[in-house]
Design a protein that fits this description.
heterodimer, A: alpha+beta, flat, B: Ferritin, 69% helix, 0% strand, globular
């Protein structure tokens, strides 16, 4: 009998309310529901999260590493796009 | 039997269910079909062992004779364990373990839920904590039952066989004895008739989603609640108790 690999899912976890989901890793799973429970059992055993997203890895559209120069280098010398000329009030968190 | 003595035995019995099922699941460590399933199974096993620890510790406190969790877990003979026969059944193949989990957890989640409202504060507190864990276990196990039942021809046939084989151990869960009655009358504990009705509905729904057939209620095995076990139990206990029996009081 041939062994079919289960598809790969990428796991994103929100560590607490107010923060955004961050990539935590990946899991194998036979279906969406299993991906969610596998992600829960693999990545939130130590109270790492309050919310989980999973998405099939083959559904993610990713930038091409060969195109790095066209994609990212033009932003390198545009310092005026950074909001570094403002004073940030102390009350603002997570910026 | 005084109400207090019944409560202690009731709590110990709950602890026995958790410990023995946890031990069975620990036997599966390093044998899961996938890494993710491996982690899930080990986590769940430890949830059950954790519940057993809380329950035994509490039973020991109420008893007031200086017995701790280890005395309950490691130093009792076979007939003093009062777990359901269902939880001591061997792991078999993955379908067997899955069916065992679904049948027990769908009962246990209802029982724990009722116990969160019982008159004994200590037990209600433990139940409130445990019910959250078991709710998740049940979600996991019933999803697997659906996958296996509604999977291939072979997985369907084998899982149906597991269900037929284990069905005879479900009657015992609802057979109310003196301890259950005292628990209900004196401590506002679960009504096993009500639990049975809810359980049947819940299991019927999962089994039907899995495209399997509910077995007929035939002869039902019993004895676990009185300390009379199936032949598998002695081997399980030998494994569980070996270290404490060979090196009494050993710690590391």
């Amino acid at each position: 009998m041939s062994k079919h690999e289960w598809p790969l899912y990428e796991v994103f976890i929100r560590s607490k309310s107010g923060l955004s989901h961050r990539h935590a890793g990946s899991v194998h799973a036979a279906d969406d529901e299993m991906a969610l429970t596998n992600a829960r059992d693999t990545y939130t055993r130590r109270k790492e999260g309050v919310s989980i997203w999973v998405v099939r890895s083959d559904q993610i559209v990713a930038s091409d590493p060969a195109e790095t120069s066209a994609f990212f280098e033009p932003a390198e010398d545009k310092i005026y796009r950074h909001p570094t000329f403002y004073e940030i009030p102390d009350e603002v968190e997570n910026l | 039997m005084t109400p207090d003595a019944a409560l202690i035995r009731y709590v110990t019995r709950l602890g026995d269910n958790s410990l023995i099922l946890g031990q069975r699941m620990i036997e599966l460590v390093a044998a899961s079909p996938e890494l993710e399933e491996e982690l899930a199974n080990a986590n769940f096993a430890l949830d059950y062992i954790g519940q057993a620890r809380m329950l035994y510790t509490y039973a020991g406190e109420r008893e007031g004779r200086g017995r701790g969790e280890d005395d309950f877990a490691f130093l009792r003979p076979e007939h003093e364990y009062r777990n359901l026969l269902l939880v001591e059944q061997p792991n078999g193949h993955f379908g067997d373990s899955t069916v065992r989990a679904v049948l027990f957890e769908s009962f246990y989640v209802l029982l724990l839920d009722a116990l969160t409202r019982c008159g004994d504060e200590g037990l209600a507190g433990i139940a409130a904590r445990a019910v959250k864990e078991v709710r998740y276990h049940l979600k996991h196990s019933s999803q697997w039952l659906v996958r296996l039942g509604d999977g291939t021809e072979e997985s369907h046939a084998r899982t149906q066989q597991s269900l037929n084989d284990l069905w005879r151990y479900t009657g015992e869960m609802f057979a109310s004895d003196d301890i259950d009655k005292i628990m209900r009358d004196e401590f506002d504990g679960p009504d096993l008739n009500v639990v049975a009705e809810q359980w049947r509905k819940a299991v019927a729904a999962i089994v039907s989603a899995a495209t399997l057939e509910l077995p007929e209620d035939g002869w039902m095995a019993s004895g676990g609640k009185d300390g009379r076990h199936t032949e598998h139990f002695g081997f399980l206990l030998a494994d569980l108790q070996y270290m404490q029996r060979t090196y009494p009081g050993a710690t590391w």
